[in-house]
Every structure is written in C-alpha cells, then in structure tokens.
Amino acid sequence: MTATPEPRSTSKPPAAGARGSGSTPAARRALRRKLVAVAVVIGVSAGVVVTRALWAGTRALAQGDAAYAEGDVPAAIERWRRAARWYVPGGSHVDLAYDRLETEARAAEARGDRDLALSAWRGVRSSILATRGLYLPHEHRLEPANRRIAALMAAQEQAAAGEGAARGDPAEAEDWHYQRLAPVPGPSPFWSLFALLGLATWLGGGILFALRGVTDEDRLVPRTAGYAGILVAVGLVFWLLGLHLA
Asked: Coil, strand, or helix at residue 246?
C-alpha cells in the first residue's frame, strides 16, 4: 500500500526583523510615547526659562517705572538695567528698558548731571555685554553708549583737574577712553563650557525620565525618576550660574 505524502507547508518563516517584541504594535506605540515625552520635556524646559525671563524682566521694568515716578532715579536706572539683562528675543520689556535708560541718560546730560548720565549709559553698555553670546543683541545701541561714556569721562577729568589739565586736549582724552571701551570682550571659555555642561545635564535628566522613568504601562520608576530629578535640578543651577559668570 502506497503512503500518501503529507502536503508541504507553503508558509514562510517570519522575517528576522519581525521577531522579538521590538516590532510589535505595542512596542511601536511605547516608542512613540517616549519620543513624544522627550519632545515635551525639552519644550517644557525651554518654556520654563523663557517664562522666567519674561516675568522677571517685566517685573524689573515695572519696579523701575515705579521708582522713577517716586523721584528715585538711581534706583530706576538700576531696575531698568536689570530688566534689560533678562533678555528674551522679541521681549518687549528689553527694548523698553533700553529706551528708558537712553532717555534718562540724555535728560541727565541736558541737566548737567554727569554722574547720573554716566550711570544710565553704563547701564546700557553693561546690559548689552551681559547678554552677549553667539551674537550681540542690541549691538546698534553699543556704539552711541560708548561714545557718550567716553565724552562724559573726559569731561569729568577736565572738571576735576581744571582748565587745560587732565589729559590735555579734551578730544584726545575722549578718544583715549573710547579706544578702551570699543573692544567687545568675549565670554569666558570656562564658564561658557560650564553653562553648556549644565544645559546638557538638565536636558539629559529630562530625557532620562522620559525614557526610563516611566514603564511601557505608564508606571513611575521611583529610583530612576529621582535620579532624573536631581540631574534636572543640578543642570539648571549650573546652566544659570555659567550664563551669569560667562
């Protein structure tokens, strides 16, 4: 009796890329959730910094206006300078702070108050240099500020030493001061790297939490979440400190 041959299976074995859990719909959904979480962490981190700068800058501007209304011009200049240093691209408080500093500087010069005029012009200059980075925000305001600071310093020296004294010709004295004000000092390489390290640590902590702090079943992993929180906090402090000292 002849045995009937068994039919051969025509199905193909699963491809190598289809094996394992990495290609299952659930795994793909989990990966997408993690990528979205990373994007959210980065966006929220940037939003925190921008919101803080906008809030602090607007508050300092309002404090300066209040001090000016009360007649305390030196305090107003100090607050306006602080508002200008809370730089955010497009932030209205920054332009308003510079406008107020320049207006008061010119008004003080017209009154003959050199000390107050110098304080305001120096506020413009120091704020521009404090916010320098890959580019120089409000660079167009720096040249006039340097010119006026140089002129006022030369005038102060002439007044203190008497006619024809000090550095000789007033124009030469002004040029001497201007040549020392004109160069734009670059940021400190050490503190710039320190700030970048802080930024990387801050973002790294957020990414660690997004990728490892929550399971695929959306359950918190306490130890990993704790480590991520420490990295975020330390990185934020280092980043702000590096920016301040750079």
From this structure: coil
The amino acid sitting at 94 is V
Span 178-230, pLDDT tens digits: 999 988 877 777 877 888 898 888 888 888 887 787 777 777 788 888 888 88
Which positions ≥6 away from 229 have C-beta within 8 Å? 205, 209
Q: Report the predicted TM-score, pTM, of the whole model to 2 decimal places.
A: 0.64
| Strands of the chain, DSSP E | none
101 contacts: CB under 8 Å, gap ≥ 6 = 77, 80, 81, 84, 120, 121, 123, 124, 127
Measured from the Cβ of residue 35, the count of other Cβ atoms closer than 10 Å reads 12
Question: Which residue has tokens 């007044």?
Answer: 159
Return phi, psi of residue 163, to 5°. Answer: -60, 130
What SS3 state is found at 220? strand
Kindly tell me the burial class for residue 174, based on how many C-beta atoms sit within 10 Å of its own C-beta (0-12, 13-18, 19 or more).
buried
Tens of pLDDT along 111-163? 999 999 999 999 999 999 988 866 788 999 999 999 999 999 998 888 777 65
Q: Which residue has 């406008």 as its token pair? A: 99
The stretches of the chain forming alpha helices (DSSP H) are 25-69, 73-85, 92-111, 114-130, 142-161, 170-181, 189-212, 222-245
Where exactly are the structural domains of the chain? 57-186, 190-245
Give CA–CA dist 192/246, Å, rounded: 6
